[in-house]
Sequence to fold (265 residues):
Amino acid sequence: MRITSLLLFVFFGLCSSTWAQKPLTKQEERKQRINQLIRQAEEGTLVYNHHHIFGIQVRSLGYGMFYEYGRMKNPRKTNIFRLDLTEIKDRKEDKVQNTANGFIFFGNPYIYGKVNNFYQANLGFGQQVVHGQKGNKNGVSVTGVYSGGLALGLLRPYYLQIIDPVINQEKFIKYSAADSALFLGNTILGGGGLSKGWNEMKFRPGLFARTALRFDYGRFNEAVSGIELGVTAEYYTQKISIIAGPHDRQFFFQGYIALLFGRRK
Fold:
């Protein structure tokens, strides 16, 4: 009899415990998750589902901007997809303005010897790896970023406004073997402007690789505020001509610094 009473007591105890542990509602689950994120934020841990980051960058050979989408894989790693839009310039570029008696008198500024504007659209995949969490809300997180992918180069012919001494008329020309004497001569009036050459773009496909360190000093985890220091290497299937002469090349290696801003969710 005592054994039966004991078994009944254990049975009812288990049942009452099971009934007491009711499944959480969606609202309760959401509240628990928010509380957990708050505790992690106070501890300086970056925890999120995905992020959207925009950046403005200055490179050793140009400038650009980018957009990055990241999806968190675990608290240490995030998979990233990134699109960079940039322009590469040649180190020998030097802007010139026509002058007379020390005064600017006509024509747009131009770059002597420049034959093409060189733009890039780089689409890549990679990862962001956390090296150091913030430690607190006012700390700085340090992450490493690496990615690689497709580099699409676009060459736009560079136009000049010149005076043709044969016909004694002004005209716009781009660099060619036939017009090289005029293009590099002393009858240049100025640059052709931004409106020319867009319908004559040439594509140069290639590959790129990037590695960088990212410093996020944003006070709140849902906001991205920081800087990125990195290097990038690009290789194209054909030589790229930016300045007239024996300066064409297929490989470009650059350092850069970028200002970051965005959101995490």
About this structure: The two ends are 60 Å apart (CA to CA). The chain is about 15% helix and 55% strand.
